[in-house]
C-alpha cells in the first residue's frame, strides 16, 4: 500500500513543470527537451534573449534601433519581444520597423500587410523601401531576365544594401535582424562548404558590420526556430497579461521566397533539421564550433573600402550591387554572377573615371539613381 502511494506521488510529481514544480507542463522545450508549463516557457524564452542583449552589450541607452521586419515569424516575434524587453528593463531605445519590398507578387505584398499591422499593434514607426525605388528593378523583373537559377544572388545583395540604406534614412545607430540559431548554424556550414574564410570568421558574431555604415545585431543568436514558432502559438491562450502577437504569418505564404525552391542554403537547412531530430543540442554545438574557429594570421583577408559608384562599403572598386545592376541595365545579367574574374571590377573599371569623392553618405546617394 505504501509502495503504491509512493509510486502515485512520484508519477504526480513527474507531471509537474520541471522548472517551477507547480503547474502542469504543456510542452517539451525543443532546445533542452524539458517538460515545462507555458508560463515558464515565456519566462525562459524572454530571459535568455535579455541575457544575450545585456551580457554582450548589444545596445546603449538612447540609441535608435531599426528592426528588420519582413512580416515572417522571426521578425514579428523579434519586434514584439524587443519592444517588451525595452519597456520592462528600461533599455532606453527608440525602436523602428524597417521593411524591404523586393517586388515579388503574391509573396512580399502579403507579408507587408502583416508588418503594417505590427506598426499599429506595437506602436513602432515603419519605413518601407522597395527595390523599384532603389534600383529601378523588381525581383519579378529580374527573374524574367535571369531565370530561377541565379536570382538569389541578386536578391541577397540588393536586400543587404537596401537594409543599410533604409537604416541610414531612419538615422539609426543599430539594425537588428531576426536571424535565429538555426540560421546561424546553417551559415557556419555554408561558409565551410564554400571555403569562405572571411565570412566564417564573423558569421557567429552577435554584432557585425562595426566597420560599415550600420552595425547589425542578432538577439536571436541562441534562439531555436521551433521555439520562435511556439511562442506566439501559446501566447493566444495567455492573453490576460500580454498583448496578442499578430499571427497572420501562419496563414500567409511561407517565409521562403517563391523564387528560391532550390537555393543552396535549403540543403544545409535540411541537414540541420535532420541533426536536430537526432540531437537537439547539435545546433548550438555547430554555432560554438564556428565561434571557436581561429583564422591563421597568414590568411589574406579582403581589405574594406568604398564603392567608386555609390559610396557603399566594398572590397572591390565597385560594390556587388553596382556590378549586378550594371549588368542588368546593359542587358548582361550574368556578368556579375560568381567570383570576380575581371569584367566590371577589372578591365571595365579602366574605362571609367573615378569620382572626385568616392565616399558619399548612403542617405544622399542611391544605386537606383545612378546613370549607368
From TrEMBL:
Residues 305-335 form the Cytoplasmic tRNA 2-thiolation protein 1 C-terminal domain. Its EC number is 2.7.7.-. Keywords: Cytoplasm, RNA-binding, Transferase, tRNA processing, tRNA-binding. It is an enzyme of class 2 (transferase). It comes from the Eukaryota. Residues 339-372 are annotated as: Disordered. Pathway: tRNA modification; 5-methoxycarbonylmethyl-2-thiouridine-tRNA biosynthesis. Coiled coil: none annotated. Residues 65-228 form the tRNA(Ile)-lysidine/2-thiocytidine synthase N-terminal domain. It is found in: Cytoplasm. It holds the Pfam family zn-ribbon_14. Plays a central role in 2-thiolation of mcm(5)S(2)U at tRNA wobble positions of tRNA(Lys), tRNA(Glu) and tRNA(Gln). Directly binds tRNAs and probably acts by catalyzing adenylation of tRNAs, an intermediate required for 2-thiolation. It is unclear whether it acts as a sulfurtransferase that transfers sulfur from thiocarboxylated URM1 onto the uridine of tRNAs at wobble position. This is Cytoplasmic tRNA 2-thiolation protein 1. It comes from Brassica napus. The gene is NCS6.
Amino acid at each position: 500500500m505504501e509502495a503504491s502511494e509512493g509510486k502515485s506521488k512520484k508519477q504526480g510529481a513527474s507531471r509537474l513543470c520541471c522548472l517551477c514544480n507547480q503547474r502542469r507542463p504543456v510542452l517539451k522545450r525543443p532546445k533542452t527537451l524539458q517538460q515545462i508549463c507555458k508560463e515558464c516557457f515565456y519566462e525562459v524564452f524572454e530571459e535568455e534573449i535579455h541575457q544575450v542583449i545585456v551580457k554582450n552589450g548589444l545596445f546603449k541607452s538612447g540609441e535608435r534601433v531599426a528592426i528588420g521586419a519582413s512580416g515572417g515569424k522571426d521578425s514579428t516575434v523579434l519586434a514584439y519581444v524587443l519592444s517588451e524587453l525595452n519597456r520592462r528593463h528600461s533599455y532606453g531605445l527608440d525602436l523602428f520597423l524597417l521593411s524591404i519590398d523586393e517586388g515579388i507578387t503574391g509573396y512580399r505584398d502579403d507579408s507587408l500587410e502583416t508588418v503594417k499591422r505590427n506598426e499599429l499593434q506595437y506602436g513602432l514607426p515603419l519605413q518601407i523601401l522597395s527595390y523599384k525605388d532603389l534600383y529601378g528593378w523588381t525581383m519579378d523583373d529580374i527573374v524574367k531576365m535571369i531565370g530561377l537559377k541565379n536570382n538569389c544572388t541578386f536578391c541577397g545583395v540588393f536586400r543587404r544594401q537596401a537594409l543599410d540604406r533604409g537604416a541610414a534614412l531612419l538615422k539609426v545607430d543599430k539594425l537588428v535582424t531576426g536571424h535565429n540559431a538555426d540560421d546561424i548554424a546553417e551559415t557556419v556550414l555554408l561558409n565551410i562548404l564554400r571555403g569562405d574564410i572571411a565570412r566564417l570568421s564573423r558569421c557567429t558574431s552577435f554584432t557585425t558590420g562595426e566597420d560599415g555604415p550600420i552595425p547589425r545585431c542578432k538577439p536571436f543568436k541562441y534562439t531555436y526556430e521551433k521555439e520562435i514558432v511556439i511562442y506566439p502559438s501559446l501566447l493566444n491562450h495567455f492573453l490576460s497579461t500580454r498583448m496578442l502577437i499578430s499571427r497572420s504569418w501562419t496563414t500567409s505564404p511561407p517565409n521562403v521566397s517563391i523564387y528560391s525552391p532550390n537555393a543552396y542554403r535549403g540543403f544545409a537547412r535540411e541537414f540541420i533539421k535532420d541533426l536536430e531530430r537526432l540531437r537537439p543540442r547539435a545546433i548550438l554545438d555547430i554555432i560554438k564550433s564556428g565561434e571557436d574557429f581561429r583564422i591563421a594570421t597568414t590568411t589574406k583577408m579582403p581589405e574594406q573600402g568604398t564603392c567608386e559608384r555609390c559610396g557603399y562599403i566594398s572590397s572591390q572598386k565597385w560594390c556587388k550591387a553596382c556590378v549586378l545592376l550594371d549588368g542588368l541595365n546593359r542587358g548582361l545579367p550574368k556578368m556579375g554572377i560568381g567570383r570576380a574574374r575581371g569584367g566590371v571590377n577589372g578591365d571595365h573599371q579602366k574605362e571609367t573615371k573615378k569620382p572626385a569623392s568616392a565616399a558619399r553618405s548612403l542617405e544622399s546617394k542611391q544605386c537606383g539613381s545612378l546613370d549607368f
